[in-house]
Specification:
By secondary structure, the protein is an alpha+beta fold. The chain is built from six helices and eleven strands. The strands form two sheets. It has a seven-stranded mixed sheet with strand order 2-5-4-3-8-7-6, sandwiched between helices. It has a four-stranded mixed sheet with strand order 1-11-10-9, with no helix packed on it. A hairpin with a 4-residue loop joins strand 9 and strand 10. The protein is globular and about 55 Å long. The C terminus is likely disordered.
Amino acid sequence: MKTFDFSDLSTIEINAEMEGFQPRFDNTLALTAYRQQTLILTREGQAVILNCRLQECLSRFRKENGICRHELAAYYSLARCQTQAIISGHYRLVPTHGASNRQVVYYMAHHLDTYSYSQRLNRLLIILKGQGGLYQLRVDASFSSFGRILAAADQVANLQLANIEGAMWRMGVYQDSSGLRPASGTYLSHQQGLAIHQQILANYVMAVTNEAFLATFGELPDADFQRRLNSVIGYAGLPLKRYEKFVK
């Protein structure tokens, strides 16, 4: 099993530096900032330098995968976690720290085999499944924080998938291949799913509105504006004070 020490990037042998590599959910294991560039570990176990900053790389990644950060924030408002991954259902690009931490490493959680903490090395060990076998990443991160961020990402992924399944039920598209009626196929569960869908949509609209309001007027809208917005949407989003932390 090959090891990559992401807590000391100088120890990693760089295989290539390029402009055109496109990191995807299926060809990448991990990303991190490397000077003014981005270091990418591919599923083949190659260390590639991409000539753009990490945040630019992540922004491009969201756009190329059709992931809206406001919609993602609406899901995260239900997960109660400020450290956000980039999630598209089963596909999850998850950070080891908050985005502002210089040592943050983004890894593909759908390729995660296991993780543990080495007291001897004083490092978190992340085992990822690549095309050539297993690869170990050494990361300077808290074991408990890592688990909390990963659990929130899994919760958001489940919410996304449940929301899609609920939409399929509402549109008459869903069909269970086994011929059995699933436990979720009840009137009450459908109503609960609809309520979650409405909450996410309301939070999404509120995120976009708050950011536009903040950019235009230099402050967030007051509670009266929020009540009017909720009446237009037709169902309430998160209370403003609880939502402020999602507006960046």
